[in-house]
Amino acid sequence: xxxxNDLKDKTIETFSDMFNGLGNMLxxxxxxxxxxxxxxxxxxxxxxxxxxxxxxxxxDKLDDKLNEIELFGDKKLNFDIVKIVSTFVKWILYVFLLIxxxxxxxxxxxxxxxxxxxxxxxxxxxxxxIVVFGLxxxxxxxxxxxxxxxxxxxxxxxxxxxxxxxxxxxxxxITALNQAGVNTDIITxxxxxxxxxxxxxxxxxxxxxARNIVEKMLKAYHAxxxxxxxQRIKINHIEGEIEALNPTTVVLNTSKGKLILPIEELSDNxxxxxx
Length: 275
Fold this sequence. Notes:
The chain is 73% helix and 10% strand. The chain is α+β, with helices and mostly antiparallel strands. It has two domains: 23-182, no CATH class; 221-274, SH3 type barrels. Helix 1 runs antiparallel to helix 3 (81-104) and helix 3 runs antiparallel to helix 4. It starts with a helix and ends with a strand.
């Protein structure tokens, strides 16, 4: 009889402990759900405030500068800084919330793995900042090169500026990937080989053929600085009025009709200017 009573007491105690444990677990789950709901509401509130602050700070002006960048051909970016920043902050807060809930539920493994993700986010943000400022720098240099070519009326400005833009963009991308923790050794080695070959080819081309080109460019630039449309000049016993000064030619309106000469003739020959 005593053994039966002991078995009865142990059974009741076991079920009591089980129900108490189940009750505590359910209570923790309910509290965790409440924490999640409150955290989501707080996150939405913070994200909403950040969006308003960014709009008041005219962050869309940065969007305009980034979205006017032509990557390849007519393809342009579609940046939305407000959306990117607010989304980034939102997920950081969600990660914090997940860590808090995991700690409360004693989910150690989840807490550790999520903590690793949280430690990685600053690297990702830095990589994004590198990309943004790299794009702005590359585009500014691209515009400066194209403006220089246009100012001296030289052709090829679009090609050269786009080439420089692409090279800068490649190096910026590699830097951003390194910052994000991506191993870029293979990419870097291949690009270094290609870039080295390009530089060698360019150096050979420059050494062989660029001397005459540069000389002609300087002569043409000098001629356009000295002479003006409408001036009456005499060159090689030919007298006429300058009708046009093109990047490579000069058009003279003579008594016998229009005469087209290479523009470097204005620098290579003795010119008489008739006022």
